[in-house]
Amino acid sequence: MTSLPSAIADARALLARLGVDPAVLDGGSLAARSPVTGEVMARLREHTAGEAASAIETAHQAYLAWRKVPAPRRGELVRLLGEALRAAKTDLAALVTQEAGKVVSEGLGEVQEMIDICDYATGLSRQLFGLTLATERPSHRMMETWHPLGVVGVISAFNFPVAVWSWNAALALVCGDAVVWKPSEKTPLTALAVQALFEKARAQFGPDAPDGLSTLLIGGRAVGEVLVDHPKVPLVSATGSTAMGRQVGPRLAARFARALLELGGNNAAIVAPSADLDLALRGVAFAAMGTAGQRCTTLRRLFVHDSVYDAFVPRLKAAYPTVPVGDPRASGVLVGPLIDKAAFDAMQEALDQARAAGGEVTGGSRSDVAGPEAFYVAPALVEIDHQADIVRHETFAPILYVMRYTDLADAIAAQNDVAQGLSSSIFTLNVREAEQFVSTEGSDCGIANVNIGPSGAEIGGAFGGEKETGGGREAGSDSWKAYMRRATNTINYGTTLPLAQGVTFDV
Ligand code: UN1
């Protein structure tokens, strides 16, 4: 029993408004739960492995047709998808809140991120350019061209249940690829809604966007494996845990397919002596507690200089219990629920380990917001004097480990001394420290920020990280190149055949 208003009727009304057929919501084996109330909102039928394989074959046929559509015209489909998302923004955001537990502004932010990438990809559809290169041979021209790749598999996680699909799909579609999406089993309803919006945009676009151009596979590991192993899927973009990536990466490598991996993070920030402490406080609070600590980019480790530790850390600790935890649908709430019981158990286990390693824990206890099936928790701050094993481990929950440092080089070394390499930041007003942090000898992460926290990246930059984070880059900059294949073309418009490197071969 939940003590909050039920999520079921609202979620079903939202799904209907977003264009999802109510007939698909009952009778299946996959329970779609709301972390807000713990209720089961729907039971979906899961695709079989055979159905997944045939969806991939259909997607491959769609790709063969779609690759011939000029890229700026392909961009028009993505523009229409962006328009559909704009029109549905509040409904889809509310569904994200119901299914992933994000607070209202973060649900809206997630859909805004989808709109942003659609706008970006629409512009990009006229900029998929290659270079003309200097050739050593007379009367020759050398150039490179970029071609569509094929079917792109997208495996996404619960914490960004729709935005991560859009980062991949918007780019893949303008690049001339087809998309097959396996969302997290924890968030299938938002995926159904996005699929319905895509089909709406496709119908508006007209018949040159073929059937099966972007499809959805509902299910767990079995359908994910079909996507990973299918010879007609040249690229799989997978977001989730490092454990998942360890399985997916080698399987793709074994068939020479491309992997774009966005795996675990263990993001750090440094608060230096010159830091603007008010700004640092806000940056740290959002990055560590926002999304209930369930972003890949969540701030998990904080290194505070000895000289400002006593001015900063007590203020931060005092801010922790003031952050409103509760029903994410309610205005003013900043921290919603954890996704499920397993997340709550993992958090408690991590806090026990931190205590055993000498950590002093503030917060972290469960609060009864909606009864036994929903897992709300006070964010935790742990003061600890070293990077114990648990500090090196990513626990997908709001736990911030706080440590002291005296020398910046040591703090940077400690920051880099973990297996993950996603995001990082420094709070400093000292230009030398800032530049050192973003230099070759600074942070080893895919994202390194100054005077903002490590989370909340915008789509214009390439998103992703190094080491166990997996090395993939999505969204902006030149990430589109991952979704295309490059051909180098050498064209001889002369009457002789000069060979490269001066080789002679006269017959
Ligand atoms: C993730 O947590 O999976 O930088 C992605 C951010 C978001 C993306 C996070 N724009 O926090």
UniProtKB/TrEMBL annotation:
EC number: 1.2.1.3
Positions of the Aldehyde dehydrogenase domain: 30-486
Keywords: NAD, Oxidoreductase
SUPFAM superfamilies documented for this protein: ALDH-like
Superkingdom: Bacteria
PROSITE patterns cross-referenced by the UniProt entry: ALDEHYDE_DEHYDR_GLU
Active-site residues per Swiss-Prot or TrEMBL entry: 262
Protein's UniProt keywords contain Isomerase: no
Region forming the signal peptide: none
Family: Belongs to the aldehyde dehydrogenase family.
Assembly description: Homotetramer.
Full protein name: aldehyde dehydrogenase (NAD(+))
Source organism of the structure: Caulobacter segnis
